Structure formats: C-alpha cells, structure tokens
Amino acid sequence: MQWRGRRQSNNIEDRRGSGMKTGGLSIGSIILALVLWRVFGISPETTLGVAQQVGQVNEQSAPINETANQVENREFVATVLADTEDVWTPIFASFGDIYQPPTLVMFKGSVKSACGMAMSASGPFYCPSDQKVYLDTQFFVDMRRHMNVSGERNGSTELSFNDQVGDFAQAYVIAHEVGHHVQTLLGISQEVRRAQMQATKRQANELSVRQELQADCFAGMWAKKNHERTGFLQQGDIEEALDAAKKIGDDYLQHKSHGHVIPDSFTHGTSVQRQYWFYRGFKTGDIQACDTFGVNQL
Q1: Residue 51 CB contacts under 8 Å (≥ 6 apart), including other chains
Q2: How confident is the model at residue 122 (pLDDT cuts 50, 70, 90)?
Q3: Does the keyword Iron apply (predicted)?
Q4: Does residue 188 belong to any structural domain of this protein?
C-alpha cells in the first residue's frame, strides 16, 4: 500500500520509552527528589510535582533514541490513523453527527489503560472507557512471522515497512480497532454490553462475534473509502487483509493451538466469517451493509 506523503495524525500517545514508573512517576524522578531534598533542602513534593508535569508532556512525545525503524513505525501508524479520521469524519457528518477520533497509544511490553493492565501478548485492543486504541508494534513483527512475510533486516527483530509487503494487513488491524471506536460513538458497544449482562455464556459469545465482525466490516468499508480518496491500495493488498482475517479466525487459532475447535466458545468469528464481512464492507462501502446484528446467518 502507498502510505508515505499523507497527513499524519496528532492523536498519538507514544509510551514506548516511558520506562518503569511508580504512581505515574519514574524511579529516576523519585531518586532525584530525595537527592535534592538531602543536599539542597528542596521539598520532595516540589520536585516530584515538576517531574510529574514533565512526564505527562513527554509521555505523549516520541522516545528520544528512536531507531530509523521505530520512526517509520510511528509515521506509518500516524498516517493510517489520520486516514481513518479523514474517512470517518465525512461519514458521521453525512448523518448529522461529529466524529470524535480516538487516541492511539503506542506501547512496549505492557500498558495501563482505563480497562486495566494489558501485555503485548494480548494484541492490539480498544478500550471504550478512555476511547483509546492500544498497540504494541511488536505485534506487527509477530503478525508478519505468522503470515510468513519477511520483515526483518540483518537479524533485527524490528519491523521495517521499506518493502511494503504486509503493511496493508497491519493497516487493517488498526482500522478494525478504530471500528470498535465507531461502535462506541454510535452506541452499539453499550447496547451489546447491556445485552450480554442478561444473556447466557453462549449468547454473550455470539454477541461478541457479531460485534467483532462488524468492526471487520467497518475496516473493509474504510479501505474502500480511503482508496477512493487517496488511491492507496496496490495489487495484493486486499488479499493480504483476507489472509490476515483467515489467520485470526477463532476456528483457525483453536485448531492450530489445540487441534480441535469449540464453536460455542468463539468470540471473534470464524476465518470465513471474518473474511466475508471485511470484503462485504470493502465491496459496498456502505455502513448499512455492516449490520451484523440484523442478520440471522453470519
């Protein structure tokens, strides 16, 4: 996909270099406060207050010692996020509403969100409580390996987008999480949670599947609208997304992990379902066509 040269979103919160913190402050800040107190008699409360203010500003800026690949990762993510903003804003305006874009948090290893702590292994996720998308770009490295796409350079585990292979699959992941944000803005997520509270485990899982498949459809819809706007898609991009959808289907993952599948435990949909709904969104470009809750057969 063609992604360079377009607008980059400012709604990025980069926590990759924030380091170990205690109560929102780094260990180094606490040690510095104690030294200034002992040597110069400066109140620890004063020092920590300043450090916390500085930390809040730095937390949203890029890490100081970024590698070239890390810079490219951030620029890629910021460009895709901007593309989602530029697509969803006029869609919301068309039905008389204002699109309020999410913040995308880039982190490394683990992260604290309004939905609790999360590790890289949990994959990208959207937290409706703070309306933020959380993403550890190590997931993209793992994703490329899983898809048998080579993104390594000279033994490095950092991801490079120089060869452009596999990048649209990664854009699909971001667009899917933004799709959950769209569901929150439209009130769909809230309705699903209320229904799940009164449902059986199996019924709650089915509601989750429908919600995830709708986010896939929204991602496909975004791809179509963004291509009409920018012409960013290249040959093979849609096939990449469909391959990614296949390999994150509940049945594919369960069979790969356990050798068998348990349909009643599905929460995201089968490979075929995820492929179908992404492609449905892409072919139609119509938000009404993404009503996964209004159909009997998924």
Answers
A1: 25, 26, 29, 32, 33
A2: confident
A3: no
A4: yes
DSSP at 150: -
Asked whether residue 33 is domain-assigned, the answer is: no
Among 80, 268, 235, 290, which Cα is nearest to 170's?
80
146: confidence class by pLDDT, cuts 50, 70, 90: low
Task: Kindly report the pTM of this predicted structure.
Answer: 0.80
Tell me how many domains the chain contains: 1
Q: Which residues make Cβ contacts (< 8 Å) with residue 29, sequence separation at least 6?
A: 47, 48, 51, 52, 55
Q: Which residue type is seen at 70?
A: Q
In angstroms, rounded to a whole number, what is the distance separating the alpha carbons of residues 79 and 210?
28
Structural domain including 85 reads 12-16+66-289
Q: Which of 58-67, 85-94, 104-113, 128-137 has the highest mean pLDDT?
A: 85-94
- Which amino acid type is present at position 218? F
Structure token digits, residue 242: 């469909």
Lowest pLDDT segment from 63-67, 165-169, 279-283: 63-67
